[in-house]
Amino acid sequence: MSQTTTFDTHAYVKKLKAVGFSEEQAETLAATQAELIDERLATKHDTKELETSLKHDTKELETSLKCDMKELETSLKRDMKELETSLKRDMKELETSLKRDIKESELRLTVKLGAMLTAGIIIVAVLVKLL
Questions:
Q1: Max alpha carbon distance in the chain (Å)?
Q2: Which of 49, 44, 20, 16 is nearest to 30 (CA)?
Q3: What is the Cβ-side half-sphere exposure of residue 52, based on CA atoms within 13 angstroms?
Q4: What domain of life is recorded for the organism (predicted)?
Q5: Can you tell me the distance from the alpha carbon of 79 to that of 86, in angstroms, rounded to the nearest whole number?
Q6: Which pLDDT score, from 0 to 100, does residue 5 have?
Q7: Which pLDDT belongs to residue 2?
Q8: Is 0.85 topped by the overall pTM?
Q9: Looking at residues 24-46, what average pLDDT do you find?
Q10: CA distances (Å), origin 51, targets 40, 56, 58
Q11: Alpha-carbon torsion, ordered 39, 40, 43, 48, to 10 deg
């Protein structure tokens, strides 16, 4: 720990002896307690350092996340623009293809209608001759 907590082992030994502990027992227990306190207990200073460190880490994480989000936003905008361009190109190709197909259909219809009209005229002419 960065700052030691004060633990009066002498006063603790006196209290233990007063309730029936031997000198050796009291000193061993006091030494063990002091060691535990020094090694395991956090002081106000320790928690303050931890709080400061956590605030710093949180700030760094926030900054990093903002940067990552900005990069993601830029990437998404670029991808959307590319998609938009691709879709416009595909729509133009589809429009051109549809116009070509319509023209081909019109031509086939014109040929078929012309053939039907010619066939009709021929039938009428044959019928006129026969009658």
A1: 148
A2: 16
A3: 6
A4: Bacteria
A5: 10
A6: 62
A7: 45
A8: no
A9: 88
A10: 18, 9, 10
A11: 110
Q: How far lies 9's CA from each of 47, 97, 113, 127, in Å?
A: 24, 95, 116, 135
Q: Are 3 and 65 members of one domain? A: no
In eight-state DSSP terms, residue 54 is: H
pLDDT tens for residues 95-111?
A: 999 999 999 999 999 99
Q: Are residues 72 and 104 in the same domain?
A: yes
- Residue the block writes with tokens 């002896």: 17
- 4: three-class secondary structure by DSSP: coil
Query: Under a CB-based contact definition with an 8 Å cutoff, are residues 33 and 12 in contact?
Result: yes
Residues 15 and 50 in one domain: no
Q: Phi first, then psi: what are they for 29, rounded to 5°?
A: -65, -40
DSSP one-letter code for 2: -
- The percentage of residues in the chain with a pLDDT greater than 70, rounded to a whole number, is 96
- The stretch 101-124 carries a mean pLDDT of 96
Name the CA dihedral angle for 46, 48, 53, 56, rounded to a multiple of 10 degrees: -170
Number of domains, the chain? 2
b (16+ CB within 10 A) / e for 25-51: ebbeebeeebeebeeeeeeeeeeeeee
